[in-house]
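Sharing a chain and its predicted structure for anyone who wants a worked example. Both blocks are below, sequence first, tokens second.
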Amino acid sequence: MRRTTHTLLLLALTLTLALASPPTHAATDTAKKTRAKTKPAPAKQYDMASPVIRKPPPEMLPPPLRVAGNQILTPDGAPVWLQGLCIDSLEWSHVGERVVQSVITGVYQWKANAIRLPVQMHTESGKGFWFGKSIYQKDEGKRYREVVDSAVNAAAGLGAYLIIDLHGFRAPTAETLEFWKDVATRYKNHPAVIFELFNEPHDITWQIWRDGGDVTDSAQAGQDVVAENKEKLKTFQAVGMQQLVDVIRATGAKNVIIAGGIDWSGDISGVLKGYALDDRDGNGIIYTAHVYPWKKDWQGHFLDVAEKHPVLIGEVGAIRAWEDFSFIGPDQRYPLEGWAEDMIGCIQKYKLHWTAFSFHPRCGPMIISDWEYTPTPYWGVYVKDALVNGKKFEMKNPR
């Protein structure tokens, strides 16, 4: 990647200013002499707002990507291995929480070359942030979109890629088509931007996943699905993933696209059974699987697919204790010991692309424990070792 000291310095300075604690009054001589009477220092306060990052010059951008077989390549044929972090908050906040600061820290200090950025647009959920349709927004989404722009610019200026993940659940709708038409037009052929169609489809058939159709208010029979949030199932008309690909390509955007499978994106095996997406007019499709300690059958759910298609483990995280994830039933609580090492070992052995979850201190499984970006002992230390130090892990116990 082509970088200049000036650009790195500018972004590092932005981060330094954003991380700086507010000014405090100097302690008096009396306070220094009487420590017992000195009040504890106030907790460090952090500005949650993201600084504005302008577009970097074209020569600073990473090369565009394309899919060839099961590889991701640059225009000159060099293979690219996407390894990075999932930076959360824009899926629940209309302004985000230290989004750009985390992008810069993730790329500059944690050596990520890919950032996954979940965003929201679902009006019915009250989180129609992209188009400014939440009760908190009065600007038609302008500020929200500018935060995403700054995240893109920050990542691209450091030579990294940014994945825009539409953070929806169950199945896309007609509203999703409007979102992707707008996003694809905004970032059309931006070399650093990758489009992730829909976060976690679940309780639908592979036929509906690809082609759309009537979705019922019943759980999908025959799927070993763990409910991963409190969303209530309902009946509606879904659009298929192929329609989302087509609406993006109709804008002229050839950006690489990411598509997640069924079972909360835990299973992408259907693409080997006749449900692969058609992308004749673009730079290709990456399929993504989400893997957590309650997910099993790595071979059947995503490793077989990786032999023929690029696979991104788009969400992956070890947990501290099962009590933190009480929605997981006892029969699916597999041993946690060694899980982090085995999972990263699997990623490294098969050179799967990955964005670890979550680079936010209040979104579990957590990579960091605070806004100093201290890695958590049960997950973050392993992620940082792999990204920063290039440590190799062994997969001793595949699930």
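Comments welcome. Residues 1-6, 15-41, 221-225 have pLDDT under 50 and may be disordered.
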